[in-house]
Write the structure tokens for this entry.
Amino acid sequence: MKPAFYKALFVLLTTAFSCSVFSQTSFISFGSNWKYLDTDTRPGSWQTSGFDDSGWPSAPSMFGYNDGDVVTCVKSSALPISCTPGGQNKYITTYFRKSITIANPAIFSDFTLNVYRDDGIVVYINGTERLANNMPAGRLHSTLATNASDGGDVIQTFTIPASAFSVGTNVVAVEVHQTNATSTDLVFDMELIGNIAPVSLIAYGSNNWRYKDDGSNQGTAWQAAAFNDGTWKLGVSKFGYGDPATTVVYSGCPPSNYPAAENSAPGCGTKFITTYFRKTFNITGLANYSSFTFNVIKDDGYVIYINGNEAARSNMPGGTITYTTGASIGLGSPEETTAVTFDISACAGFFVEGSNTIAVEIHQNNGSSSDLGFNLELIGNAAATGTPNLTRGPYLQSGSETALTFRWRTNTACYGRVKVGTSNGSYTVASVDETCATTEHIVRVTGLTTDTKYFYQISATDGTILQGAADNFFRTNPPTNTTRKTRIIAFGDCGRGDVGRQDDNLNVYKNYLSTNGIDAPDAWLLMGDNAYSTGSDAEYSSKFLEFMEVLY
């Protein structure tokens, strides 16, 4: 059932959700419904938008046979359909079609196509071939795939240009080919994601940076957006000395040559510890962004403030920072020229509509450091737009006697809402709204009663209901001194190797439920290697979450 599955994932899912997905829109998800033809025939113009596929059956992916992840089995030969066919004379080609709507393809920089395929695949967009993988040239209905594939266990990722799509309805047509007529298995599933181009707010090499390189104690006032930096020097990044720099700053080794060029290779052992930088820029349409990415080149340490509030520090000690605080360690190659990257959610409250100020203090490890460096890039990641649909979750996390956190993902940014009640359909106990539009939703509901069963509904504040039914329920924790039997099941290695590991885990789980005569345990414990080997969101989805969806 939903509740047990969701409550069990609150620890590990913190790695599965990433702010970097904010600028993407999902148009086809793994497990979507497709039209398909498995009759060993190839209709004319079957790949075009105008083709009438009303006579084709429709079913959810993954399609295929002889694979544990297959949801819809297709015919493999003239024999009756079987999910585990043997023998020879397999059909070489199976066809699939799906219509999607894209309101404005121009807002996307490109599209990412993630595919499970066994063996070869050809993809058409609105009748035009856009991708052929593991297939030879000059393809016909009977053309064999070039090689036996990976068995459909590995996601194959491709990029499709935005120009391939039209405003409104688009048809994605796919043909899957076997490598020979004795092939034991077939697999097809697909995900299509639109990537919204990021916006450069501050570029490397930007001008109009204000900087203070006189070794003075600027206290804290300089961090604020309203601070008057009109008397500070003006320069172009990259700043520094001792290494290549566009603007050489004064190190503290006398004399200063300003306004002429400063000494780019100072040699004294009493260099200034701290140099200050500020830059003001505009954000128009803050609500259209979901996150901001910083790429910072620093030598040695930095502290960054946004509109007067500390947002990040790197290679600096904790606690209060002063103008004499040294960086934690001295950096050398390649660290001193490698960017430190971090994301800040638009919901974090650092940025405002209109004018914003970035203030940075660069710290040397000590006064004898031979070089200093600073450069910064800021990228705005646009939020996906459109009617929100649920693409992940909800997951129930961090439960206590009186509170619970709900987490879910939508395909577009929206303001999320969670409503809770003691009876299904009547959510009168609590209603909590998000204060920022996002695709990664985290809502905590408090003020609940100990050891009580509640029903919940998640939605967008515009009224779009995402989920809320009789099996959307949870129970708050009992008092800490309660004695009660608790069932916990552990999973491990779902993401490693072939689908056999996933099937084994699933079968063990089903047997556990059957043996104990229950619908679900009280909690799940994930032991590791469930998103193997890179820990990507796509791996976590395909190797754990999706194959477990049959349980809820």
Q: What stands out?
A: The first helix runs from residue 2 to 7. The two ends are 5 Å apart (CA to CA). The domain at 200-382 is CATH 2.60.120.260 (Jelly Rolls). The longest strand covers residues 108-118.
